Amino acid sequence: MTTNHKLSIIPLGGVNEIGKNMYVIQCGDDLIVVDCGSKFPDESLLGIDVIIPDISYLIENEDKVRGLVVTHGHEDHIGGIPYVIKQLNMPIYATRLTLGLIKGKLKEHGLLGTTTLHQIDSQSEITLGSVPISFFSTNHSIPDCLGVVFHTPQGTVVHTGDFKFDLTPVNNQYADIHKMAEIGKNGVLALLSESTNAERPGFTPSERLVGANIQEAFYNAEGMIYITTFASNVHRLQQIIDAAAKTDRKIALAGRSMVNVVDIASTLGYLNMPQTMLVDIADVNKYKRNEITVMCTGSQGEPMAALGRIASGNHRQLAVHPGDTVIFASSPIPGNERNVARIVDNLFERKASVIYGPGSSTGMHVSGHASQEELKLMLTLMKPQYFIPIHGEYRMLHLHRQLAESVGVNASNIYILNNGDVVDFAGSEALQERKVSNGDTYVDGLGIGDVGNVVLRDRKVLSADGILIIVITVGKSDNKIVSGPDIISRGFVFVKESEGLMEEVHRITLNEMEQLQDNNLHKPWNLYKQSIKESVGKFLYAKTKRRPMILPIIILV
Amino acid sequence: MTTNHKLSIIPLGGVNEIGKNMYVIQCGDDLIVVDCGSKFPDESLLGIDVIIPDISYLIENEDKVRGLVVTHGHEDHIGGIPYVIKQLNMPIYATRLTLGLIKGKLKEHGLLGTTTLHQIDSQSEITLGSVPISFFSTNHSIPDCLGVVFHTPQGTVVHTGDFKFDLTPVNNQYADIHKMAEIGKNGVLALLSESTNAERPGFTPSERLVGANIQEAFYNAEGMIYITTFASNVHRLQQIIDAAAKTDRKIALAGRSMVNVVDIASTLGYLNMPQTMLVDIADVNKYKRNEITVMCTGSQGEPMAALGRIASGNHRQLAVHPGDTVIFASSPIPGNERNVARIVDNLFERKASVIYGPGSSTGMHVSGHASQEELKLMLTLMKPQYFIPIHGEYRMLHLHRQLAESVGVNASNIYILNNGDVVDFAGSEALQERKVSNGDTYVDGLGIGDVGNVVLRDRKVLSADGILIIVITVGKSDNKIVSGPDIISRGFVFVKESEGLMEEVHRITLNEMEQLQDNNLHKPWNLYKQSIKESVGKFLYAKTKRRPMILPIIILV
């Protein structure tokens, strides 16, 4: 790998995927990291809890890493921090709310105090290594979001963070649209802009639209109101609190992350709720049902989150009564529809009124990400010479590229990258021809990166058809069978159904052992094991069309 | 269980779920079965291939089962037939296309000739046992669909099958709306009507709408066209063929079920395609790209279906070239969005134009099921005294109930049932108070019903954290350890990462064996095993936060 280049841009996570965002701006001997997210594994990654970026490249350059700048407090931007900080200590720069959420994470992992935390805001100007950095504020589904501007000797590099243009934002958290215009006017060498909603035509509606609909639903509701949304959507929470205040309802909180976020956001002043409005969930039943609103987790149908437990009748303090109203102030994320539907089924069985479905149909949710016209607006404001669409799967990056071309970015100056791809700038000439280490690092329990493909492949086989263990003890001196074969199965087939099968496996195993002994092939034992595996496997597949893992164990005594 | 009742209606599959439809109409000593579907397992049912209804009740009453009437040829109505027929032989009644598809299934399972097949049509009148049965034709996303009318002494029972009202159907397959009106006029005791789209307001658009949009896309396409849809949607296939004919394109077929359905439907006259239009996929490259349309499987993003393999570059004969057009004439079924998105990503990477997304946004798909206004139309036509919403998850049944009430059905005459619930009619009085055997029967490989909860629970544990096997051989005479503990793990952790861990497991196991022996607790061995399991489990969880299955094996020699 060459290091002659003065300026390089390297995504380590977040392109060709949704999640685990991590981008590196390398300027001479200074590496600055933007975001450190996690992502959730799909079903094929059995037993994996969370995925974080492979940071080998950062570790190789540990002495040059100047800091981590975090754009906002969502999991796909901060979720990897506790795991990464254990491997590579670096100072963290973030806004007040984002820092609050990061501190919560570090505390949970017993890591508070292991790294320095620097509070910034959209007006801050910092220098990491030799790179001056400034910021601009954006609208998104969590307060205190930043775009990041790197003033490098080669030119200005802009990273948008996550954004939409909400011209009537809740809490007056306006985006710095004039600052963006000025940055663009002064010249942008390269823009990295998020692509989540590049498939959506038009302009994403303002968060205020949801507020109006929530309010109307509150006026119409008769019993208790359960309302669920992403806890981190503080603007949404504020609008729920406002609707509750207007309809003389108290607020109770259900679900760990809801309690957590409301606590942090209230303490830091991002949430405006009189303490007298808050009711402990243990006291909810002391009020009339139409005096209470419960803000709860579980908007994605998670069966163990608060709403999931309430719906299935497994919540210790809360229950749905006939006539209660349940509002999903959310849209099911693709893949979660079936879980949400299960919860809705349960709520209807308990005779609740339920407002559910995609946000576009209920008006109870709007996206926090820029749609096509907003993406074009950002591109137009920044007028970048080079454009790198980030934060999205391939089709989103691809469509974002088409949008960039449509507003005048030169097609040959647009780079759709894979994680690990490097764009090097020499003067204002860009070159993409090298790659650094990259990939998914799996976190399973306390292990970071200790579960790899072999382990996952084994889990896959075990999950589909279980395991059959065959233990044989053999005398050291005479190679005669002392005991066994003992056959034990798990996850394969009912014991009572399998009697005939197991007798046959017993016979086949003995047969293999004899054949091999007849051939005077006393060793290596691996040969015996392989033969047993193959013969038993063939037999079981013919009889059952299943392929359990077959594990022959030969013990010498 | 009492059998005094003259008429009973019993769902054995299809209520509170989508899939495995099976309803029983019992009239005195005559049991008539409607449909015999399968459903696909969700991810939690590890290794299960397909789910069919529990037919214990039918087997108990084998001598009274008069036949199976099949409403149409979709998997959720015919998919269980090969598995059920092995356990319970009964004559099958279905329309020509449906029978063609059933025959294909029976052939595949080597069951052709084991049961009698009777061809009927919407004008047929048959008598099973002592029950006269007539039919009416409906519109749906496969031709030759039936509603079923049971003329029992207690009154008329109507089962709608799957339906929509398509007033401009493709191939002039009109629904018997006048016949439905007449049935309603003559009086319906009970209506069983499908609920799939009870959540959708309005009226489902006509299939012809899709035809017009496909035609327009064909006119605009420049390269080869790949178009994917459910193979069984013969009307859709016909419209694709028509669009190809108008734009001078030949048709090639990719995917087993596409070849299969086109073959059956063409042979039986449901598909009108001149033989000269059909091109073998091996010959596709002999034509100009704009002379070919490939109809392929894979509309739900199945990675191993034709389109999935084409998109990932793994199809033997077909490849996407820049400028080709790929059309999803389909909507992703909830849960399949991510798989479809993967395919779209791959297609964009190959520089295809891709038309994808929900049918409502692309106009390339319409549902085959009745929306709310159509459900109300069916209820209005039939004017039933009793109403049982079927074919849907709870919220759909619940909303269908509300629709029925809105058009005048008496709320107390509406039954939302669980599978196995029985509604008994004595005269025109209905009573729901008993239940028959019911449930999911799992098919795994060749086994029907031999995988149950214990096996699935084991697979779950194995899939999440793998297995750790500890083998110890103990001398029979002195209870001393002869060899071991030998520790073998699969799916738990990398071997090289686990050395320290395994040494500790070794030590803990020896310790447990000694302690127990010190206590003179030589037997039962289960006690030793349990202690090892607990101690090792605790240790591993503390060290790794994982819970592998721990399987101590003590061999006496």
UniProtKB/TrEMBL annotation, chains A, B:
Ca(2+) binds at G47, D49, D444. Its EC number is 3.1.-.-. It is found in: Cytoplasm. The active site is at E194 (proton donor), H369 (proton acceptor). InterPro entries: Metallo-B-lactamas, RibonucZ/Hydroxyglut_hydro, RMMBL, RNase_J, RNase_J_2, RNase_J_b_CASP, RNase_J_bac, RNase_J_C. It comes from the Bacteria. Keywords: Calcium, Cytoplasm, Endonuclease, Exonuclease, Hydrolase, Metal-binding, Nuclease, RNA-binding, rRNA processing, Zinc. One of its GO terms (molecular function) is zinc ion binding. It catalyses: 3',5'-cyclic UMP + H2O = UMP + H(+); 3',5'-cyclic CMP + H2O = CMP + H(+). One of its GO terms (cellular component) is cytoplasm. Its main location: cytoplasm. Its cofactor is Ca(2+); Zn(2+). Pfam families: Lactamase_B, RMMBL, RNase_J_b_CASP, RNase_J_C. Binds 1 Ca(2+) cation per subunit. Seen in 1 crystal structure, it is not clear if it is physiologically important. Binds 2 Zn(2+) ions per subunit. It is not clear if Zn(2+) or Mg(2+) is physiologically important. Belongs to the metallo-beta-lactamase superfamily. RNA-metabolizing metallo-beta-lactamase-like family. Bacterial RNase J subfamily. An RNase that has 5'-3' exonuclease and possibly endonuclease activity. Involved in maturation of rRNA and in some organisms also mRNA maturation and/or decay. This is Ribonuclease J. It comes from Paenibacillus catalpae.
